[in-house]
Amino acid sequence: MFVVTTLYTAVVRRACIAGVLFLVSIACRDSPPSDPPRAAAPPSLLLITVDTLRADRVGAYGDVSARTPAIDALAARGALFTNAFSVAPITLTSHASLLTGRYPAGHGARHNGMRVDLAVPTIAGSLSRAGLVTGAFVAAFPLDRRFGLIKGFQTYGDTMPRGPDGRPANERAGRVVVDEAVGWLEQHRSERFFLWVHLFEPHAPYGDARGGRPAQARYADEIREADRQVARLTDALGGARDSTIVAFTSDHGEAFGEHGEIAHSVFVYDTTLRVPLILAGPGIAHRTVDVPVSLVDLAPTVMRLLGAGAFDADGVDLGPALAGTALAGRTLYAESFAPLLDFGWSPLRAVRTGGWKYIAAPRPELYRVATDAAESINALGGERQRATAMQAETDRYSGTALPAGRTTDRETAARLQALGYVSGGRSGATRPDPKDRRAVAARIAQVTSGELHGPALERMLLRILEDDPRNPLANLRLGYVLLESNRCARALPRFRAAIEAGYPSADAHLGLAGCQAAGRDFTGATATLRAADATEPGNPVVLANLGLMLSDGGTPEAAINPLQRALTTDPELHQARFGLAIAFARTGRRTEAANEARELLRRLPATSPQRAEVERLLRAIQ
Q: Which of 412 and 504 is assigned the larger pLDDT?
């Protein structure tokens, strides 16, 4: 047995009717005055974010083929912003700006895995102090509580399901998230609340790519599923619907080959920056707002709508736009530090103002987005003075370097990689322009998005390695492709290459040890797993596998300590508990073996197929 990682009063009115008897009029006038109407209670807030949702794939935004009736219904009774833009095509970075109202340099989470500065105020914290009950339910690891977005939330639902190996998965279905959110809403129906619900559909992988349907069709299916969950949330408001502000948006879009990009994160074109933004609820009239706005504007806007007062933010209150008044002209900023942090390339920064957009890069770009929404014509050559001014404006928001110490730990890096975020750019004096590496980035995105399988995946990995033989991610992925098809002899050098290139987690060591164990080289596998423990200390999967190797290799007494350490860190790692029971049995400690077997049976689901094997062990040692 070997554990392998793979990651919302009715108003009563009286009237004296003209044309009736004067006496009636007098009586009406002299009747006791009614009590003044009560002021409406301050509203609650429901924030829904749908990960990776392009605005142009929503019916309310013009897609006649979209199956988004719930989202469209929100737009039909609220304000729809046609030109809303994210601050970054990165999940954590964008959500941090949503909840703080600050651009990335102001909250610190410049990429997935980089923690939000806890000194920065959040709307959850402010609303909690104002007496609202606060809850959040998220669907993917990039928003895990460890990254700081939990601040101000009294409940933060981020528990992921476990995979076959017992380890937490890195995402979960929207219906599960909404189940939890609706349950929480039921418990707090009599209170003012702020509820944030994050859905990971339609983030890649989109459904099952093996069926042969086009990626964009499967992407549309996932949008439909997200819309179903939005309907469940808005229906669950029940009587609170008329007293709840609903804010709907996305963190970023998705690219399907535009500008040579697959997926998102590297480039800052509007393909991945333009997002839907809808506000509906009490005091919000139905209208369409075309002025460009940023996600940093949401925090100060909802705080004013909730009567919570001013909020210190980089964004502005969109109240004038909601009232049909033009907003003052201003500059919007966006960035991506993924090229730097994932590949060692130059980061990209962008500003938008007066119908123009400038992208600061080694080879800058300037687009007149007012007339060239597709950003197809670089107007830099004829607009040097404008470009120079916009470069200076960009630099006022952020430079190209990050503060020292903003790093990602090894476990975080590994789990983000399993979701398609590469992580681990190599240093260098010269930073290439990401435009010059778009083919490489697109190939890697095809691999990490889950769109390729079998021979096609293997061919793409080999192609990447032709250009970059030491690429640790490509070597790791190829190693697992080969391992899963029982070609360990070819997988071994791939795992070793990933280790030598400094792959940031123990996954390469686990793959290598898996091949060694398959070849009955328990000594080699044990040595590899000890190196894995040094690379990622305390990783329970590493410890569990080390214990299994020691036990199967003839030293069950030595296996007990790492197996117990693994279970101390993760009591639900069932393979480790089964291995511990066997190790106890092999050393003659039958009572302790039986206790572990019984505990495992208590923890396993009643329908688990592993129960039979545990029961056989228990019978044998009693």
A: 504
Answer yes or no: are the C-beta atoms of 107 and 117 closer than 8 Å: yes
Q: Show Cβ contacts of residue 576 under 8 Å, excluding neighbours closer than 6 positions.
A: 3, 166, 540, 543, 544, 547, 563, 566, 567, 570
- Residue count of the chain, please give it: 622
Biggest distance spanned by C-alpha atoms of the chain: 108
- Helices 472-484 and 507-518 meet at what angle, rounded to 10? 30
Beta carbons of 289 and 277 less than 8 angstroms apart? no
Going by C-alpha positions, the residue among 377, 353, 354 that lies closest to residue 365 is 377
At 126, the amino acid letter reads: S
Distances (CA, A) of 137 to 166, 196, 199: 22, 6, 9
Between residues 507 and 83, the one the model is more confident about: 83
How far apart are alpha carbons 104 and 100 in whole angstroms?
A: 10
At 411, list the tokens. Answer: 């476990």
**Nearby residues of 214 by Cβ (< 8 Å), 6 or more positions away:** none
Contact 52/203 with Cβ under 8 angstroms? yes
Tell which residue, 403, 408, 340, has the closest CA to residue 141: 408
Query: Which three-class secondary structure state does DSSP give residue 350?
Result: strand
24 vs 17, 18, 30, 575, CA distance in Å? 9, 10, 10, 86
Task: Determine how many CB atoms are found less than 10 A away from the CB of residue 569.
Answer: 14
| pLDDT tens for each residue of 541-561 | 899 999 999 999 999 999 999
Per the listing, tokens 């340099």 go with: 105
Report DSSP letters for 246-269, one per residue: EEEE-S---EESGGG-EESSS--S
Please name each of the domains of the chain with its CATH number: 44-325 (3.40.720.10), 348-397 (no CATH), 532-622 (1.25.40.10)
- What dihedral do alpha carbons 430, 434, 440, 443 form, nearest 10°? 150
- Kindly give, in sequence order, each residue whose CB lies less than 8 Å from that of residue 164, ignoring residues fewer than 6 positions away: none
Q: Are 244 and 46 in contact (CB under 8 A)?
A: yes
Q: Which of 116-130, 258-272, 280-294, 460-474 has the lowest mean pLDDT?
A: 460-474
Is residue 166 predicted with pLDDT exceeding 90?
Answer: no
* Helical axes 472-484 vs 488-500, angle rounded to 10°: 160
| Reported pTM | 0.80
User: Which tokens sit at 289?
Assistant: 């707002």
Give the integer Cα–Cα distance in Å for 162 and 170.
9
Q: List beta partners, residue 334.
A: 350
CA separation, residue 356 to residues 130, 273, 367, 475 (Å): 40, 15, 6, 42
Which of 570, 601, 575, 597 has the alpha carbon at shortest distance from 160? 570
